[in-house]
Design brief:
alpha+beta; 4-stranded mixed β-sheet; single chain; 89 residues; 44% helix
Length: 89
């Protein structure tokens, strides 16, 4: 009986930590600032560049790169793609 309780507790803790990780990622994504104004990143540190055709996925990539701001640029050839310079401000 104790073994079953221990297994149930382990499963519960594992699923709770997964939910907490998802919540932290959502919070970080919600804090990402997207801008088309280069002046908004004047005093920020550039970390790299990302691109995607989904704003949600673009925000995820900005967070994973360690940034909190994305300077958006839209492509000329493929208008569905969004390009962003990643900054930490």
């Amino acid at each position: 009986m104790r073994t079953l309780a221990a297994v149930a507790a382990a499963v519960l803790l594992a699923s709770a930590s997964h939910v907490l990780a998802n919540d932290a990622e959502r919070l970080a994504m919600g804090r990402v600032r997207l801008t088309t104004e280069a002046a908004a990143t004047k005093h920020c540190t550039r970390l790299g560049a990302v691109s995607d055709d989904s704003v949600k996925d673009l925000r995820k990539k900005i967070v994973k790169a360690g940034g909190d701001t994305g300077l958006l640029v839209f492509g000329r050839e493929d208008l569905s793609m969004i390009y962003a310079q990643v900054f930490r401000c």
